[in-house]
Hints:
The protein is α/β, with parallel strands linked by helices. 33% of the residues lie in helices and 18% in strands.
Amino acid sequence: MKGNVIVGQSGGPTAVINSSLAGVFKTAKDRGAKKIYGMLNGIKGLLDEKYIDLTEKLDSTMAIDLLKRTPSSALGSCRFKLPDVEKDPETYKKIFEVLNKLEIKYFFYIGGNDSMDTIQKLCAYGKSVNSDISFMGVPKTIDNDLAITDHTPGFGSAAKFIASTMKEIIRDGHVYDYPTISIVEIMGRNAGWLTASAALAKSDDCEGVDLIYLPEKVFDVDHFLNKIKELSKTGKSIVVAVSEGVKVADGRFVFELAAEHVEFVDAFGHKQMSGTATFLANKVTAELGTKARAIELSTLQRCAAHMASRTDITEAYNVGGAAVKAAFEGESGKVVVIKRVSDDPYMAITETADVEKIANIEKKIPLEWITDDDYVTQDLIHYIHPLIQAELSPIMVDGLPRHLNLSMQ
Ligand code: F6P
């Protein structure tokens, strides 16, 4: 086979992003790739000529099996926005110099909508200099906010962790002979898919969460306090799932209302989101005089590989493999997407879509899937349900899950 392969990971990590890396690696190897490089810290690392030879590191079936079960981005990640080529052609020249030096013919980038901006820009530059390098996007994000694809690898495992954790928080809330109030903050940025997965906790052994607040709808602090007041009258414990990205009517994030809020903005202009649950719990205590606990799931929900969905791990692997197949068959400037072909039994296939239709675009929950009583519809629950199914046990060593740590190899 002519030409080598390079793969990178970008954006926030997930429990299954390494399964996609394994899918890219194994498929490329099986299809005859001689050298398969891994960028360290994505495109940012590549610019600094930081990469490793994965053919040396992933030299056994065991290594690949461990990689599939290892959370977070084994190659390291970045939140790095490529400049516009007109403003900074040198950056592109440098990247292509490195790629040409390594004799790269196939470039794979595993990431979300921001990371697909990188694929879009590199592909456009490649065309402008008549490069024959194929650029392919491999989808991932716990946020599930990529356009076109039915869902994104990473989401199902995070949703499984959230629904399971909610069941545990709900049980914990029933322990005393007096009611408790727990406000749980969930990631997902401007899309509520992950927070909505809290609804899956409700079952014949669990009361479920009481209220779900998503960024797709304007958040009203007074309405929220009234709801808590009303629910408190029933004497039952209350559990609230709230998205990190909920905003009030004037466009400010709820976490920005906190007096102690400090702002941090990343290269893509995204504000660091944190503090929504704490703000609301403090508000409940201050206004209603009741004890309230804030629980920010934070990074715990992104990399909970011990609670990963096997459906998710398998699909993550498959999108990696599908990207290689498409690239080796001549496609470029595309992202692999998942198409659901049946709900019951759940079945999905992969296709490819133009990167322009995915880069920098956020897919939100349709409003008809959100109810007026601060909850979500059965349709939304049905949509998420198949994605959290089945398990792949971690390989346990000394009582703990074993991971593949490329930097310690
Ligand atoms: O993009 C995925 C995500 O996990 C979002 O849900 C979250 O807001 C963000 O990453 C946090 O990113 P970082 O780790 O860079 O603060």
